[in-house]
Amino acid sequence: MTYHPVPYRPARLPDAEALARVAALRQQMETRRSVRMFSSDPVPERAVLDAIAVASTAPSGAHQQPWTFVLVSDPQVRRRIREAAEAEERVSYDGRLGDEWLDALRPLGTDAVKPHLTDAPYLIVVFQQRFALDDDGGVRKHYYVDESVGIAVGMLLTSLHVAGLAALTHTPSPMRFLGELLGRPRNEKAFAVIPVGYPADDCVVPDLRRKPLDEVLVRI
Question: Which keywords label this protein (predicted)?
């Protein structure tokens, strides 16, 4: 492809409206939490699809858009994903992670049992395309894949929360079983499993503290 510029003239918001919008979003995002206790109640599929569409607007290296979002609603497939994930997690919690990692996880109250993978009505399995496969079998390198897919996942989580849905970034390690189970091509590598749904009526989350702005911001 060759460089082909087109005009870009987005409307400039009045300062007051811009400040109000970002303040409202900040307030809403302050309530976002990673949820591990999901209701099995159905959620509007359109909301999930629109959130994925928002994620796909993320910037990416050389505009290669190196992501695939696999939306899983089939209960049997979700069960198989849970069984495979828990098998890997048992090995991890029984020693593969190491004491330092386990100590870091302790405030989250996690273990090898992952009911969110079958309780949530949807799983979004995010794959990163490490390279492109041409129709003739050729291979083209993708650039800044980790960064690109990470930004897209952040936008996905934000969109889901704005829609009133709960989510979790679950990363069983290793995740090779996801590509095999979901029949993904050889250029795709699993990046995260994101359960999506409503929190269960008895949902609890860890009592955690976010760093305030003055701890994460450096002015120069």
Answer: Flavoprotein, FMN, Oxidoreductase
List CB contacts of 192: < 8 A, sequence separation 6 or more: 125, 126, 153, 169, 170, 171
Q: Which of 194, 203, 46 is nearest to 122 (CA)?
A: 194
19-68 confidence digits (pLDDT tens): 999 999 999 999 999 999 999 999 999 999 999 999 999 999 999 999 99
Q: Which two tokens stand for residue 123?
A: 């799983």
Residue type at position 34: S
**Verdict on whether the full-model pTM lies above 0.90:** yes
Task: Quote the pLDDT of residue 97.
Answer: 87
Q: How far apart are CA 207 and CA 124, in angstroms?
A: 26
* Other CB atoms within 10 A of residue 168 CB: 22
pLDDT of residue 1: 74
Q: What's the one-letter identity of residue 193?
A: V
Alpha carbon 96 to chain centroid, angstroms: 24
Copy the structure tokens of residue 109.
Answer: 């109250």
Q: What mean pLDDT value characterizes the chain?
A: 96
Higher-pLDDT residue of 37, 138: 37
- Residue position matching structure tokens 């269960």: 200
Please report the DSSP string for 154-185 in residue order. HHHHHHHHHTT-EE--B--SS-HHHHHHTT--
Give the SS3 label for residue 49.
helix
